Amino acid sequence: MSRIEGVLKALKGQGRKALIPYITAGDPHPDLTVDLMHTLVDAGADIIELGVPFSDPMADGPVIQLACERALKHGTSLRQVLAMVKTFREKDDATPVVLMGYLNPMEAMGQEKFADAAVDAGVDGILTVDLPPEEADEVAPLFTARNLDAIFLLAPTTTDDRIRAISEHSSGYVYYVSFKGVTGAGKIDVDEVASKVAHIHELTALPVGVGFGIRDAATAAAVGRVSDGVIVGSVLVDTIARNQADPEQLKRALSDLLHPMREALDSLAS
Amino acid sequence: MKLTEEMLKALPDARGHFGAYGGRFVSETLFDSLLTLEREYKRLKDDPEFQAEFDKDLAHYVGRPSPLYFAERLTRETGGAQIWLKREDLNHTGAHKVNNTIGQALLASFLGKKRVIAETGAGQHGVATATVCARLGLECHVFMGAEDVKRQSLNVYRMKLLGAEVHSVQSGTRTLKDAMNDAMRDWVANVDDTFYIIGTVAGPHPYPLLVRDFQSVIGRETREQCLAQAGKLPDALVACVGGGSNAIGMFYPFLTDESVEMYGVEAGGLGIDTGKHAAPLSAGRPGVLHGNRTYLMEDENGQIAATHSVSAGLDYPGVGPEHSWLKDIGRAHYVSVTDDEALDGFRKLTRVEGIMPALETAHAVAYAIKLAATMDKDKVVVINISGRGDKDIHTIAQLDGIEV
């Protein structure tokens, strides 16, 4: 059983929902990322999605675009991101880490080399935004052979046939994108999400995490009620941007943001 | 490799691949739209009503066929092969871009979409899109890098006059690639009612197929005209390559004619060895950007590199996937000329033939002159004059230190 599967099973057993924060590696500075990851775990994170910065993040809104620019200004490379995970693992062997990013940096490293390095660093899952399962036939076996979970996106526009097909290619969890748009934009329609996630649950046994539009305890609870976990990104990255000058203040601010979400999710536990 | 009709018919394959290139590398939200577009296009492609409409617009709105013109004086001065010019600059809106926008806007109408978005570099595709949207009464949004808005202000104003909203893109390098990023972002958010008219022969499948099919009218006409006027097939075709839409349109109908050599001319900028250029086929490597796998300019970590070219329309780090395939199989040659050589080409054609090419096109002109000089007098070189140079007057004047 993968670390991701183990954590999600345990949570389910307790009737709890997963809190999955996203930050971009190297933002605001590569030296801070590992520290911030520990901060997220201390504040209640169950799984961490760690963004690999890319020069052309087409699926992201301005908040994460700017995070990528800050990280790249300091030369944050995929190699460095993997080194960050390795350092994180020295103190935390329990919290799953999912790398989230775009295909090109992974291809540039070489898919097999990347898969090996990811396992060596202690990465648990890979979510490649611009890699649909249709194009993953060379990469997917490399991940499977190394027990790395391949996490794919589902969207409001995904048809039933594709939900089934994508779920078959996925392991760990599937990531439901709550609205049509880029990260950090739009307003989440909880009723719509509820009915779509319920429908996805009918089509796959995998846990469903929901991301895009979750910005506070109230939205976290509302989405947590109808899914297996919530993914929180832009609001955290925006907090990083606003507190980038003061690392201690930044950690407090992240913690202050995540804590109430944790509590709100746990208050759902039956 | 000798290409046959059967081989060409099989490409792109069902997943949109040309050999190792192409594909559909997009976020999940867009996937269903791309499948629908592919399905509808395949249906309409053979629909007589759709084709008749397309042909009618090309004839009466665009003004096709565009002439194939024998550049007699340029030929004499060059002293080698005959140089012929395929006059896409004479199309309505002044470039080849309109062939494709007519086709895609027609698709948008058939699909019932009321809102159109487009990216643009030099502004030619933006103008062509704004033009057809004005005519069809479609809402039009054009994304353009802030850098290009500055250097192509004339085209920006043309688009506004035509009723389009021009979005100045401030992210990244503020050029064509960033305009395409923002167009994709808009599309994800408005996928239900919006048709994305991609201007170049790149992007996720089926776009490279659509754009190639719509632009192939250039090569089909050239083939007929050359046989009629020069009495033979061309010996060499020369076209500039940014994303590569005018080049693929010219090359495609000749791919099985083994005797026809093809030269795609990339932007060498300040010189390939300076790193300041926009020539992925000459100096890049395969990667994934904007929905397709293709040759890219990138650093060792897979980050997309900043490009440089005097011409905004070639200032792009990628290229259409079919060109990547044609390069690998050796069917087409990809070469580059520098900014300075292109400017010389611009001046030469202007002064010797009275035809002012776009700076993009000037790259093809510059290379073709060098090439023709090495060839016998009975050989025929056809340059695709993809666009006219009016839009570049300010850039040229600035280089000359003159205020217009």
UniProtKB/TrEMBL annotation, chain A:
Signal peptide: none annotated. Pathway: Amino-acid biosynthesis; L-tryptophan biosynthesis; L-tryptophan from chorismate: step 5/5. Its EC number is 4.2.1.20. The active site is at E49 (proton acceptor), D60 (proton acceptor). It comes from the Bacteria. GO terms for molecular function: tryptophan synthase activity. Keywords: Amino-acid biosynthesis, Aromatic amino acid biosynthesis, Lyase, Tryptophan biosynthesis. It catalyses: (1S,2R)-1-C-(indol-3-yl)glycerol 3-phosphate + L-serine = D-glyceraldehyde 3-phosphate + L-tryptophan + H2O. Belongs to the TrpA family. Tetramer of two alpha and two beta chains. The alpha subunit is responsible for the aldol cleavage of indoleglycerol phosphate to indole and glyceraldehyde 3-phosphate. This is Tryptophan synthase alpha chain. The gene is trpA.
